Amino acid sequence: MYLLLVSISRITFSYSSNRSITLQLSSWLGLWETDKVNTPYHPSLRHIAFKVDFADIKQAKEWLEQKGILVRTSFGFPSKKQPLVLPNNPQAHAAIYFDDPDGNSIELITPLRLDVEENFEMMTLNDWLEGKKLSKNSL
Fold it and tell me: In the predicted model, what is the mean pLDDT of residues 4-8?
């Protein structure tokens, strides 16, 4: 049974009276009433990703930290190494991860390139950008 199903253009997460974040987005969010609130974390159950613009992902860590929200270690990359770049061929995405007040995983993600076959290891966004700059200079 749906508790809530809405089209979203703006969402605010309130952490306390002085800590909240507001995201502008275009998406749908469905919330269900359940007695399973203590289910351990698994990305298929307690993970929400929001697409953001490239300019926003570059500033996301600083913005989250200004709001008092901790960027969490993800895929072995600590906070200081995020945003990170995920190699999901033929796509590449930049992402940063944090938890909401209930312990759900929140991901801010932006596509870097789509439908391009390129094998690479997961890396920081800074390393990705530096590699792209070096590639252009070597042509």
Answer: 44
